[in-house]
Amino acid sequence: MEERYTKIRKLGEGATAKVYLVEEIATGKVYAMKVSEKEGLLQHEAQILSKLKDGGFPKVKEYEGNCLVMEYIEGKNMQEILEESRRFSMKEILYLMEEILRLLNVLHKQEPPMVYRDMKPANIMIGRNGKVYLIDFGTVYSKVLGPIDGEGLDSKAGTYGYAAPEQFWNGVVPDIRCDIYAAGKLLAYLLSGKNPALPPYDMENYCRGLRKVSPEFQIIIERSLAKNPLARYETGEGMRRDLRLAYEACSKKRLFKLHKKVSHEYIKCIWLSEYRRIF
Known about the structure:
alpha+beta; 41% helix; 279 residues
């Protein structure tokens, strides 16, 4: 299959695969080609993506052997943007988190549910039009898809700092609360600028350092990062709802402060005009 494409440049490289920007010789169209010696991983990812019809997931063009050709998403991943010292506004954070949780909800509503297991900024693409995409589905857990490259689907997977603690416990079958935990870490990173992927990875110490986060959002983060998975949000929809309420509450606080400031300046202005009239 590779002979039908011309490699333009490397887009990225992970522990098990390399991704290239390629041009199809016959049509001149560009795609992303993922190449790996672990064919089972690519087969698994192709199976996952073929079941997902939402536009927030890359579409598969073809799969064969050690190559998976997918839709090319033009833009940057969130980690690249954050490394450029870009800080997102509260409005942007709300939009990004709502879209991410919506896409996770699409996975979670599959029958049986799919657990993403590797939510982190590097796996979130932001297109040039601002659209949010999830990429890299090699670690997605689903009971019906069989083994990945000879290993059980309940084998340990995830990225330290974002992955829920139970993802690294022996014999634990992951569920959607693993993704809720990772979404909470991502929210905390966007709000505070404190990267959870840097040591120490301890959740309690991490939470103590979130001084820039308002109480409304701190409550959401703490619930998402609960040590006991049963204490976390049951669905991404619940977390989305609370995020919207927290944003609205913070916006009202800010509006109230602005009103107070404007009123104060107005009084000073009246006082000054009266002073000039009298004297």
